[in-house]
Amino acid sequence: MIQARSGIFAVLLALTLSGVGAASAQSDPTDAPADSVVEALDEMVEAENEIAGLAAFVADYDLWEGIAARAEQSVGTSAGTNFALTKLRSELVEWRQRFSEVEGLNADRIDTVRRQLAALGAAPEEGEASAIAARRDILGAQLDELSAPRVLAAEAYARADGLIGEIDAIIRSRQAAALTARGSSPLVPENWGAATIALTDGISALVVETTSIMSARSLSGHISQGLPGALFLVAVGIVLLLRGRIWVESFWRRRTVEAGPWEAVLHAVVTGAALVLPLMGLGLLARGLDASNLFGFRGIQVIQNIPLAGAYVLVGRWLSIQFFTKGRFEAPVHFSDNERHRARRLVGGLGWVMAVGSMVFVLIGSVDATGTVGSVLIFPVVIALGWVLFGFGNLLYQHRTQKTSDSGTLRTFLGIVGRLTMMVAVLGPAFAAIGYSAAYRALLVPTTKSLAVMGVLLIANGLMVELYETYRNRAREEGEEPENEGLSAVIIAIVLILLSLPFLALIWGASVDDLVEIWTRFREGFSIGDTKISPTDLLTFVLVFGIGYSATRLIQNMLRHTILPKTKLDIGGRNAIVSGVGYLGIFLAALIAITSAGIDLSSLAIVAGALSVGIGFGLQNIVSNFVSGIILLIERPISEGDLIEVGNQAGFVRSISVRSTRIETFDRTDVIVPNADLVSTQVTNWTRGNSVGRVVVPVGVAYGTDLDKVAAILKEIADAHPLVVFDPEPQVMLIGFGADSVDFEIRAIIRDVRFKLHTKSDMNHQIAKRFAEAGIEIPFAQRDIWIKNAEALYPPQPPQTGAESA
What we know:
elongated; 5-stranded antiparallel β-sheet; 10 strands; 23 helices; disordered N terminus; 3-stranded antiparallel β-sheet
């Protein structure tokens, strides 16, 4: 099989070389113009580069076949240790990356040949010239030859990718089996003796090994070789370890001048330095002890674990100081004094227990005390860690009911975390007690580390918020008011959470290879039908669309504030043009972004056609409103600022969007009217074209009044009003004779119909005043009631006797 595939690649290489040679022979640069010569040379250089890449691919393919065969054998038999499988997987990942690069081979040339074939068009059923048919055959064969390396590389890529997935499945199944494996309980007394012996032997072996090496180097006279440098590193490490945090805190307390706008930045630097300096001291201490050459294999293991064990203690102390100590800056969580004292002890205890546990694991590994002996040795650490975790979880859970300035969301979150921590603190030791020794590393240790990561996140979020507050205060001092203040805090929190996800994944058992695989899958993108969309495509789409969208908004602002105000268009026409440019610009930006990203939507045409039927029924009202909005913008029967009446609503048009129109009523309430209603129903526009309108003021006078005098007074009142126009002049009409009065009406045209009610009110006031001065009565309804048989309401009284009258 290997020889056959190698032969295929050799023939393929020969065909490619011959194709390039034929192309070079067909186009002689000496017989072509200068531009053609340059193009031919460029094509020749590009072809040589592609041939070199293909030749390298063919030369390495035999090596790939050997690695792939070995990987298939290992996967088929599930043989090999996890270390061997991991190493084999790394090799497969490298080959997969190389195949991914080869998939882009000849891309430009293939695109050129495809365009040539597209220019020739589809082959007709009959009647095609022989020269065109021959040319189409040559181009088709050339396209097949150029595409073959990409196809074979894609096949090899799929093979490598599948083997990687199978190896990952084997490793995960082994990890799951180890996690669920049950051994002897560490509570069985018979196991204590072996564990004690193993512990004693480990410590004795470490002491004997170290003293033997020191004695041998002392006798040989080489004990001082490299010792001064090692002692210097140890001394510097101890100084940084013991005094680093004290120096930083002393610097912070002794400051007499604040850093102004950089106060928050300085606080962030000082906060980090209080942790980094002691950690550097631990690293230098371990490096110095290792460089002394006074320790053996077991001693080196212990020394190499010193930075990790010390980091647990230092991080625990640092978190307790940042969270549970009153200082210049506000803590991320507000605890009471009793809670702070208790929390400092618990967090510090977590750091020390984790440090002891790491050292116990090193000791277990040095004496090869696996199985029951190892579970017995680690069980006291499991109990101690579970006890401290339960106390800390209980503290967080009880804090949710405390009356503090913390937000309700934060208290709820802490309550949930506290409850989960208490559950893990109980389950971990319980599983370990019945023989599941892996529960320590699978539950207790990841939970403790996750709590530390959450604490660092809260501290980092607080520092970022301080920086943002500094920026906001400076902006206010300069007269600017920052927007979206609450949204900025949310975005900061989301970004920090996303950055912490890889660390949390590593803490809970994921490997670096797993994260790299996830990143590889992410870079490959996802497929929708035959269309493959990668993050690069999405980034290109977002970038191009963002540029187009920004350009559209810039053009709209120029039209709205600079260009259109200089024309004779009314406000409605200006708004229609600006809205139309916005819709067109966004559509073009989306189209250009899709094209630039190389997203082929042709394969989605059938799916889109099928979905459009169902979406059409579900969104028909929205589509109708959208089309109506376009009609309103084009025909402009109404414009912003018009006084309209539609249905039982009347008011001023404030905005016209794609779906609806906002009308502000006289009650100062907003009414959202769908655009379809404005197109399909009757709309009264009081200010279309101009604001002139008519006002009608009815008035009645008593019978017997001089009607000519009344008409003259009403005419004077109408003529005197400043909003009444003179042409046409106002009219006073005698409408009729009512039951109680003689009815008149003032009918006048006013300059602005929006002041119709004000005009009517002014005229009524003048009518009342002038009629009172002229003695003209404005009647009101009066009715006389005649009762028939009124005596029936008073029944006759019986005659009174003499005694009664007396």
